[in-house]
Amino acid sequence: xxxxxxxxxxxxxxxxxxxxxxxxxxxxxxxxxxxxxxxxxxxxxxxxxxxxxxxxxxxxxxxxxxxxxxxxxxxxxxxxxxxxxxxxxxxxxxxxxxxxxxxxxxxxxxxxxxxxxxxxxxxxxxxxxxxxxxxxxxxxxxxxxxxxxxxxxxxxxxxxxxxxxxxxxxxxxxxxxxxxxxxxxxxxxxxxxxxxxxxxxxxxxxxxxxxxxxxxxxxxxxxxxxxxxxxxxxxx
Length: 236
Fold this sequence. Notes:
By secondary structure, the protein is of the alpha/beta class. The protein has seven helices and 14 strands. Helix 1 (39-45) links the parallel strand 3 (22-27) and strand 4 (51-55).
C-alpha cells in the first residue's frame, strides 16, 4: 500500500493506493476525523481490491480537537476528494458515508458515483434538534454568535461555528434520496442505534435503494463491527 497526501484548494486529503483502478471515498460524520474513529480504516483493510480517499470535513489541531464551519466549507472538502478521484482517472468511484456524512455527497449528487453506501444516516437534519442535543452534553458551551463547544469521549473537544447551524436549517434527507444519481444505492441501518432513533423503513424509500439492517450501535463498536464489515464485503 502507498499513502499519498494531496493538497487542493487549501485542504489536504489522503489517497491510500493498492494499485486498483477503483476507489472508495469515505465521508465521515459530525465532528469526528477522517478515519471515523477507526471505522473507515477497518473497512478499508477488509476491501483489498480498492484504493481509498480519506479527508477531514473539520479542521483538526495537533491535540485532535475538531472545528466545524458551515456546510459550504464542508462542500469544498468533499468536492476536492471527488475531483481528485476524477483526475486520477479511476474507472469506478464509490462513496461510503457514515451518519451526518451522508449530507454533502447526497447534496452534490454526482453522476460520477457508482456505489453510494449510507451507514446509519439521520432522516432529518434540524437546527433546533441539533442544538438541543448539544445542550444535553455535560459541560457544553453554546454560543450562537461565535463557536459552541463540547467534549468528546476520547478526551478531545469539538468546536462548532454558529454559521453551521444556520446552514443545516431545513435540510430534508428524503428530498436527496429521491433524486440520487449513483448507479447503486445502499442504506445500512444500525438496529441498536442510540443516536439515530428515527430509522428508515423499506416502504418509504425509493425502490432503487437497497435497505440493509445490521446489529450494532451507531458506530458499530465491539463484535458488531465484524457483521457490518461482512456486509461491505458483499456489496463490494
